[in-house]
Specification:
The structure is a single chain. With 396 residues, the chain is α+β, with helices and mostly antiparallel strands. Helix content is 44%, strand content 13%. The strands form 4 sheets. Strands 8-9-10-11 form a 4-stranded antiparallel beta sheet. A 3-stranded antiparallel beta sheet has the order 1-3-2, with helices on both faces. Strands 4-5 form a two-stranded antiparallel ribbon. β6 and β7 form a beta hairpin. The longest helix has 26 residues. The protein is globular, with a radius of gyration of 22 Å. The N and C termini lie far apart (53 Å). 43% of the residues are buried.
Length: 396
């Protein structure tokens, strides 16, 4: 079995994720494609992930791709996470991940409707949900685009309340609005459009999918075919990767993950004792890249691309991740994480190194910190998920 060592994996990461200077992207779509999809749970991540991979990339260019050219689309995907996806690839994500998520989430929502007393039994709750969905979709079509609040004005049943964790200290009674919109989005019927306010806002206008993308998210691919296509894209960007890596990243079952590896005819390789996989014909060493450093935002796709992270993370997990597995802003050097960054109230980018990188690399890092301070132009980012070292760097 061919062995692919850590240094080779780091070289692949630098080139294929377009973080090495000589291989950076020419547009936001190319930046997104390099990591298959961009994480979009935190709206700032999308823009910073593109800028880290694209010389002269800025918010305006990414917004144009998202909302004017619509070559990128924000949608629910793997692991029930919101991603920004190249539009040409969106139907694959829908069939490979979103459709199955929608089925499971509908079942869960029906259960919660019964528990809240909105409907007496599952069948009645299902009928109630379907009626509200159709009414909401019709209201959205009539408006063309709308906020959740506007749709709740048109369909008052969206103001029905669920009963979550009754009797617990964290009990809540949220409106059903977000769950219904989540369901319609998971099924590919509606899409998130422009944010309300600035590019940092997580509230969006909603639009019918046909109004946003002629033809919608329908695909001729079966679920198995779509999973094969998604696995191929993942291995191209993140390979070599283990079966556990693929299963974690996609959110598939173990059986689905194994089946996809067989379908792409994945080649087994030795990852220092673990079995990894690459695409057929991708066993040769990557072309070397020049030394590079990069500042990546919280939840960037690169550090979130593998379940086994020690080969690029080292022993820094407890300082860089929160307790639920979300990574904060990181500093990279030649394919490994060497530090973290954050912003105090004054807005400049402040960093801390976690290991000795040498004077030359530290000079590059200092230059990058200054460049990001200039790029942010006084905008202070607070990641949605706070991590230990980011909190320290953001003080003062």
């Amino acid at each position: 079995m061919l062995r692919i060592g850590i240094e080779e994996r780091r070289t692949r990461l630098g080139r294929r994720h377009r973080l090495a200077t000589s291989s950076q992207a020419t547009d936001p779509v190319q930046a997104a494609t390099s990591v298959v999809v961009l994480h979009a749970t935190d709206p700032a991540t999308v823009h910073l992930s593109v800028a880290a991979r694209m010389p002269d990339g800025d918010v305006v260019l990414t917004e144009r791709a998202l909302y004017d050219d619509r070559t990128l689309i924000r949608m629910l995907g793997m692991r029930r996470t919101v991603f920004v996806v190249p539009t040409a690839f969106a139907a694959v994500v829908q069939a490979a991940a979103s459709d199955e998520i929608a089925v499971k989430q509908r079942r869960l929502l029906v259960k919660h409707l019964v528990e809240a007393g909105i409907a007496g039994e599952a069948e009645a709750a299902g009928q109630w949900l379907q009626a509200v969905e159709e009414s909401t979709a019709t209201a959205l079509s009539l408006r063309g685009s709308a906020t959740a609040q506007e749709l709740a004005q048109d369909e008052p049943r969206l103001r029905s309340r669920l009963a979550m964790a009754p009797g617990k200290s964290y009990a809540a009674q949220p409106y059903v609005t977000s769950r219904v919109l989540f369901q319609l989005a998971a099924e590919g019927r509606i899409v998130r459009g422009r944010p309300l306010g600035t590019w940092l806002s997580s509230q969006h206008q909603w639009s019918p999918v046909e109004a946003w993308l002629p033809g919608g998210l329908a695909s001729d691919l079966s679920a198995d075919e779509a999973r094969t296509t998604l696995a191929r894209a993942y291995l191209h960007s993140f390979g070599p990767a283990t079966l556990a890596d693929l299963q974690w990243w996609t959110g598939w079952t173990l059986g689905q993950s194994r089946k996809a590896l067989v379908a792409v005819e994945a080649v087994e390789v030795d990852l220092d004792g673990a079995v990894g996989y690459v695409l057929p014909g991708d066993e040769s060493p990557e072309i070397p890249v020049e030394p590079w450093v990069a500042f990546l935002p919280a939840l960037d796709p690169t550090p979130m691309g593998w379940k086994d992270r020690h080969w690029y993370l080292g022993d820094h997990k407890t300082r860089l991740f929160d307790t639920t597995g979300n990574i904060g802003p990181t500093i990279w050097s030649n394919g490994r994480i060497v530090g973290a960054w954050g912003q105090p109230e004054s807005g400049e980018v402040r960093y801390q190194l976690l290991e000795d990188v040498g004077q030359e690399t530290e000079s590059l890092i200092e230059s990058q910190a200054a460049a990001w301070t200039s790029w942010l132009a006084g905008v202070r980012l607070t990641p949605r998920f706070r991590t230990p070292l980011e909190r320290i760097l953001s003080q003062g």
